[in-house]
Amino acid sequence: MVDHTSDEEKKERLNRLIAVTNEGYLKGHERFVGQVVKVLVDGESKNGDGMMCGYSEHNKLTHFKSDDLSLIGKIVNVKVTEAKTWFMIGELCE
What CATH number should be reported for the domain holding residue 52? Predict the structure, then answer.
């Protein structure tokens, strides 16, 4: 089968798809801003020192300020303060 679609058109379609996907993920995370969510702490965040991360009860990657390694494996309450495309940022409530 002959491909009649130019590489330029393929790149344009991919970029539109990526933009729509990113917008959807960001919008999905924005609905949690200001809410307290339960987070199962996985470990230290790769986003910086003094940050921990885990997944919320809604399966959203969540980063929060803490350097308490004893939280790993525990469920903590985190107030979401900021939404990003691929994760959320919050503050530990406990």
Answer: 2.40.50.140
